[in-house]
Amino acid sequence: MSLRDVLIYPDDRLREIAEPVDSFEPALSELVADMFETMYEERGIGLAATQIDQHRRLFVTDVSEDRSGALAFVNPEILERAGVVECEEGCLSIPGINETIRRAERILVRAQDEKGKTFEQEIDGLLAICIQHELDHLEGRLFIDYLSPLKQQRIRKKMTKAARRERV
Ligand code: K2U
Ligand code: ZN
């Protein structure tokens, strides 16, 4: 297992659309293990492959308090959405920015596990929010895309200035 670098906004690679996973060889399990290690190290509760510059339809989540809730979603899709909920979101790729956006309250998800077995699950609560956030990453979308153009402009300016300070 190894830690991977997380892409930071406004890196254009975060805008790539991920390709379906068609091979469930050991290399996929190695990538999944690296994603869990990176997610826990970064104190995240989700991580999409896009965020580590791997443009495949795969993300991991763990919304538990004690790392007992590790889940991998391969080729995920949301079949049904119901209700609306507001949630303050952050993103490991947009450090220091937290904004409230709206998501579906309940979702029906179909995905494969890391061995390729298909499952369907009705999900609500924080896991439902996290899954919608991660699925957006696979489509090249970021939670800040749901904010006003002015707020997006301010965030882009703040992150670009922070990146310049980093380079000095
Ligand atoms: O994809 C990511 O960047 C990880 C996200 C996942 C997430 C965002 C918003 C709401 C739920 C999940 C987070 O940055 S992980 C950090 C975090 C930790 C605890 C609660 C919410 C967010
Ligand atoms: Zn994110």
Descriptive labels:
single chain; 168 residues; Peptide Deformylase; globular; binds zinc ion
Explain the overall architecture.
- The structure is a single chain.
- By secondary structure, the chain is of the alpha+beta class.
- The chain has one domain (12-167): Alpha-Beta Complex (Peptide Deformylase), CATH 3.90.45.10.
- It contains 3 helices and 5 strands; from the N terminus they run H-E-E-E-E-E-H-H.
- The protein has a 5-stranded antiparallel β-sheet with strand order 1-2-3-4-5, with helices on both faces.
- It is globular and about 45 Å long.
- Ligand K2U is lined by residues 44-48, 89-93, 129-130, 133-134, 137.
Helix content: 25-40%
Q: State the end-to-end distance.
A: 32 Å
Ligands present: ligand K2U, zinc ion
- Would you give the CATH topology? Peptide Deformylase
Low-confidence stretches: none
Nearest-angstrom radius of gyration?
A: 16 Å
Number of strands: 5
Q: Which secondary-structure class do the elements indicate?
A: alpha+beta
CATH level 1 class label: Alpha Beta
Mean pLDDT: 96
Q: How many helices does DSSP assign?
A: 3
Main beta sheet strand tally, sense and closure: 5 strands, antiparallel
What's the order of the H and E elements? Answer: HEEEEEHH
- Gross morphology: globular
Strand order of the largest sheet: 1-2-3-4-5
List the topology elements.
Elements: H1 26-41, E1 46-48, E2 58-61, E3 71-89, E4 99-112, E5 118-124, H2 125-138, H3 149-167
Antiparallel strand pairs: 1-2, 2-3, 3-4, 4-5
Bound molecules: ligand K2U and zinc ion.
Residues 91-93, 133, 137 line the site of zinc ion.
